[in-house]
Backbone:
């Protein structure tokens, strides 16, 4: 089995992000990288940390909480990006810096209620469903304004922006069409929620299209840590 060189892979992704920023005439450093470490062992996360990566994303609540505790000697910014069950919110509220995948008020309320007072407000993105795929989570764009209004009033939370996982396609134009839809939703929200600043979109296969359409944070796992 081929050994994974996490540091080399990370530098390759950083270069791709930088090239995409230049292509889109965006300032250098305007797009952050979230290293998606779900199912990956601690040693690979430590290797990424040692190479300079600081933000890591997890998809499964129990795994996320356990890793956060085991790797507490590293000053990792933990992000949760997977589906959220209401009975799993407490651990996420206690260990994560960001949660990207909120799509209903009940989950946001629980995260707010369970966020410890001694921690900064929990950064939150609302997940939007851009396609009709039954397996995808997310709120319909038409329902977004009401949820934004409700979530923005909750204490212990900091509503940061939107997240989406568009339908998979290798067509750059189709990729950009989905990402443009999310960008337009964010621009509309910013008219009455000017502090919203985050577009969490783009992965290993489509980060360039996402950066062109305004992504501020791309989520990359396979091209850093190898296939699952």
Residues:
């Amino acid at each position: 089995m081929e050994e994974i060189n996490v540091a080399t892979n990370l530098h390759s992704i950083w270069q791709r992000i930088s090239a995409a920023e230049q292509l889109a005439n965006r300032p250098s450093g305007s797009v952050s990288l979230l290293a998606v470490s779900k199912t990956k062992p601690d040693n690979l996360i430590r290797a990424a940390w040692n190479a300079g990566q600081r933000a890591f994303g997890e998809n499964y609540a129990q795994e996320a909480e356990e890793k956060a505790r085991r790797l507490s000697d590293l000053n990792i910014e933990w992000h949760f990006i997977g589906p959220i069950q209401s009975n799993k919110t407490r651990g996420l509220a206690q260990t994560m810096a960001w949660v990207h995948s909120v799509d209903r008020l009940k989950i946001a309320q629980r995260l707010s209620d369970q966020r410890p007072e001694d921690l900064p407000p929990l950064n939150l993105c609302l997940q939007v469903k851009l396609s009709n795929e039954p397996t995808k989570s997310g709120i319909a764009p038409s329902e977004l304004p009401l949820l934004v209004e409700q979530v923005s009033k909750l204490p212990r939370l900091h509503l940061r922006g939107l997240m989406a996982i568009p339908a998979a396609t290798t067509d750059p134009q189709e990729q950009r069409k989905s990402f443009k839809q999310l960008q337009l939703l964010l621009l509309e929200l910013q008219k009455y929620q000017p502090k919203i600043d985050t577009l969490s979109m783009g992965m290993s296969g489509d980060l360039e299209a996402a950066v062109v359409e305004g992504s501020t944070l791309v989520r990359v796992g396979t091209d850093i840590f190898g296939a699952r």
Summary: The radius of gyration is 17 Å.
